């Protein structure tokens, strides 16, 4: 169900951890947080009930959906530990941390809270996963002609920018003395490339629970970084298809992304 059709928006554990700038293992479910605090889940849930000032008396948490009852309640380990220390104190000081259910959509929608480490790790993880997937495919079927049409279509998409990106490609166009047909072909390649990069980037950010659009202030940086990562993948695949297997992954990536390149081969 699309965001337009649903009043609720969801987020994955990985995306929430990335937005908070913490490792995934530092997000605890309500059951895990209750066990850490030696209380029942019902008690922990009751502690989150807001008082007259709209603030709960227990550790802060985020739901994986904006629905007030749906999704998983994720407790940052730092909140759980702070509340554990508060309960263990001989004299019960007031628990003055910001508590209750937190609105992760504000965390996401605040453009200043799109951390650079989230962007870099997301694209690097995609690149490493894609390199591993392609190396594995070549290892299983070393026939250099296997998947050739798709590979060549990807190369066509990047052909105009393979020596320095779009800036150099446009410089070539500006200084070219060739006919209009060649310039038209380069422009078409750049246009197809732009569409492909943006389509796959939006799929990747969506898979991470991030609502990024072409209007987002970071969109140009994101597309440029993703374009370069895709280019690095193709450069590696070109070596491997020419029997130079240097740079093949030595380790399985920690994250296997579901968003893989899919291009339509023109006939």
Return the domain count: 2
Q: Total number of helical segments?
A: 10
Q: Beta-strand level of the residues, as a percent range?
A: under 5%
Please mark out the parts with pLDDT under 50 across 5 or more consecutive residues, or reply none: none
Largest sheet report: 4 strands, mixed
Quote the distance from N terminus to C terminus: 34 Å
Class by alpha and beta content? mainly alpha
Order of helices and strands: HEHHEEHEHHHHHH
Number of strands: 4
Mean pLDDT across residues: 77
Give helix % range: 40-55%
Strand line-up across the major sheet: 1-3-2-4
Describe the fold and architecture:
The chain contains 10 helices and 4 strands; from the N terminus they run αβααββαβαααααα. With 267 residues, it is mainly alpha-helical. It folds into 2 domains: 91 residues, no CATH class; 128 residues, no CATH class. Strands 1-3-2-4 form a 4-stranded mixed sheet. α7 crosses α9. The longest helix has 28 residues. The chain is elongated, with a radius of gyration of 24 Å.
What's the quick description here?
The protein is mainly alpha-helical.
Give me some keywords for this one.
four-stranded mixed sheet, 267 residues, mainly alpha, 2 domains
Compile the SSE list and pairings.
Blueprint: H1 13-20, E1 27-29, H2 30-37, H3 41-47, E2 61-63, E3 73-76, H4 77-88, E4 101-102, H5 104-109, H6 116-140, H7 148-159, H8 166-175, H9 180-207, H10 219-241
Parallel strand pairs: 2-4
Antiparallel strand pairs: 1-3, 2-3
